[in-house]
Specification:
The chain starts with a helix and ends with a helix. It is globular and about 50 Å long. It has one domain. The longest helix has about 30 residues, at about 190-220. The chain is built from nine helices and no strands. It has about 220 residues and is an all-alpha fold.
Length: about 220
C-alpha cells in the first residue's frame, strides 16, 4: 500500500518537472544504453589481469569505488548549486560516471567488457541496482543464473530482443525522479546532489560487487 501511494505521489510530482528535463533524461538513458552495447566511450584503460587473487580483485574494486564516488559527489555539488540548467547536465554526467565505474569494476574482477554479453551483463547489473519490487526479483534471478541466461541472448546488438531501452529508462526514471527533482532547486540542490549521488554510487557498488561475487562462485 505504501509503495502504491508513493508511486501515485511520484507521478503527480513528475508533472511539475519541465518537459525539457524529461527529454534530457530519456535521451541520456537511450544514449547510455546504445553506447554500452556498441560504443567504446566506456571501455576501460585498465588491463585485464587474470592472475590476481580474489582478495586482490576485491581491494581493486573498493579502491575504484572510492575514486568514482568522490567524482560523483563533486559532480552533484557542482550541478546542484546551479539550479535547473546545471541540474539537467547532471543526468548524462552521472550516467557516464556510473557506467565507467561498472566497466572498470568488471575489469577488476577479470571480465572482458569488449565482449558483447559482458556489456549486457553490465546493463543488467545497472537495472538491478535501480529497480524495485517484482522487477528487482526477476533481475536478481537473471544475474544469479547469468551463464545459462546468456546462452539465450542474441549475438547482434541491433536485435530488438537485446535490450528494451524504453522499459530500462522508465524503470530508472521512476527510481531517481524525486531526488533529482529536489536537486533542481538552486543552492539547496547542491546538498541534495551530493547526498543523492553518493547514495546512488553506494547502491551500484553493492549490487556490482555482489553480482560479480556470485558469478565467480558459480563458475569456480
Amino acid at each position: 500500500m505504501t509503495g502504491r501511494y508513493a508511486k501515485k505521489w511520484q507521478k503527480k510530482m513528475n508533472t511539475y518537472i519541465p518537459e525539457k528535463v524529461h527529454s534530457v533524461i530519456t535521451g541520456s538513458v537511450r544514449h547510455m544504453v546504445q553506447a554500452t552495447l556498441t560504443g567504446s566511450e566506456y571501455i576501460s584503460k585498465k588491463e585485464l589481469d587474470l592472475t590476481t587473487t580474489f582478495q586482490e580483485r576485491e581491494e581493486d574494486a573498493k579502491e575504484l569505488f572510492r575514486a568514482y564516488k568522490n567524482t560523483a559527489i563533486a559532480e552533484g555539488v557542482g550541478t546542484g548549486a546551479g539550479g535547473i540548467l546545471l541540474g539537467m547536465a547532471d543526468f548524462p554526467l552521472l550516467l557516464s560516471i556510473k557506467m565507467k565505474y561498472l566497466f572498470d569494476t568488471a575489469i577488476a574482477y577479470g571480465y572482458d567488457c569488449r565482449e558483447f554479453q559482458e556489456r549486457l551483463f553490465l546493463l543488467t547489473v545497472f537495472q538491478l541496482a535501480f529497480s524495485e519490487g517484482e522487477e528487482r526479483v526477476k533481475l536478481l534471478e537473471r544475474v544469479e543464473n547469468w551463464e545459462d541466461y546468456a546462452k539465450q541472448l542474441p549475438k547482434d546488438p541491433d536485435d530488438p530482443l537485446t535490450m528494451d531501452w524504453k522499459a530500462f529508462q522508465l524503470s530508472y526514471r521512476d527510481f531517481i525522479d524525486l531526488p533529482k527533482l529536489l536537486q533542481l532547486i538552486p543552492g539547496f540542490g547542491a546538498i541534495v546532489g551530493a547526498a543523492v549521488n553518493s547514495h546512488f554510487l553506494d547502491l551500484l557498488k553493492t549490487t556490482a560487487m555482489n553480482s560479480y561475487r556470485m558469478r565467480m562462485i558459480k563458475t569456480s
